[in-house]
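Dear colleague,

As promised, here are the two records you asked about, laid out in our usual form so they can be pasted straight into your sheet.

NAME FIELD: protein one
SEQUENCE, THEN STRUCTURE:
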Amino acid sequence: NRGFDSKLYYRLSFDNIPEYIKSDKINIIYTGEIFSKLRDIRPFIQAVEEIKREDKKSYELLNILFFGNIDDIESKKRMEKLDSVRVSGRIPFNEALKYMLNGDVLLLFGNKNSKQIPAKIYDYFGAKGRIFVIYGDKNDPIKSIVENNDKCINTENTCYQIKQNIYKIINM
């Protein structure tokens, strides 16, 4: 029964563009909690770090925004060292929706060792941006929803595959 409220999305689409959205960059948005027991963000961070080292021009096109709590302090510190990444705490739901509605790419980490599909996918489907899905593991149940969907860019949770898909997003 989960979905999104199209009337709310429509109304919010007329609000001012959120503060951290940059019109000259590719805005990659993540909203929600990151619990390291369920979501491993280290390969994503490593991929962004490698792009920074290897391809400064591509790296400078990225504006990656994380909204929500992250329990992995080391990963959070690594992200905060990247000038293309902004890590913020929790924000109100409507504000998060405004970021989703103005994002170019919506980032979703699947849950590892779980049969649960993150409800965030339904919020993301209501927005205009592409959805970059990083599977939690090989058995991630979200695959059944996103694998044959043109709106989604899907990848296993490895640095190499994530990096290749970030380049794909940049070239789109």
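NAME FIELD: protein two
SEQUENCE, THEN STRUCTURE:
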Amino acid sequence: MDSHSLRGQLSLLIVMAATVILLAVGAAIIVLWPNLLLAGIIIGCCSVLVALVGIGRILDRRWVLWFAVPAFALAGLGSIMLAEDLGISRVGELTEVVVVDHTSEVKTVHDSTDPGGRKVYTHEYTLQHTDGSPIEEPMIYRGKDGFEEFDTGDTISVLIGADGNAPIEPAESIDFAADIAILVVGVLLSAGVYLMCALLLLFGNRRYREDRWGAAP
């Protein structure tokens, strides 16, 4: 292995370690402090950017990024989704409640990117415990159709905050199996990308340099 390939392998290892560390930090933040979801997502996105920029600078073959982008994106998405569900499950208590009212509001928001305005939908679900005692804060869904699985009069299971008055989300929205499946696929694809990069550094780049500049005498 020549010095160029050795430096490339070492750089690739550093990029891989930095990616894993950043992704782990982002996931840990979401699990421990679910209210800092945005911060965890930003760190997760940074980990993907570090991987893509690092591979782009280390390798001569930019086509590798076509494989790297979906692989790292899936790994990041799976990690964030799993961390979010773990965080919500950790702070929320599974409770059966009755939906006593459902209201929706539509607002038109104007900004520079969309002068014509875009519609923002907000659904509020008023809940009460099965014994009839009220839950002070409504469960909110921001999206066009709301929670399509239930409506007024239905008894559902939700995750409620420690104070018992802040519903977080329906229990059926927590899907660990899907989160783990996405994460496993992303990790396997990412590992495949790193293996491909290592092989290119070991064999492909040397052949590329020889084809471009001629074999060394």
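A couple of things worth noting about protein two: Strands lie at 93-111, 114-129, 139-142, 155-160, 167-170. Helices lie at 3-32, 37-58, 64-91, 176-213.

Best,
R.
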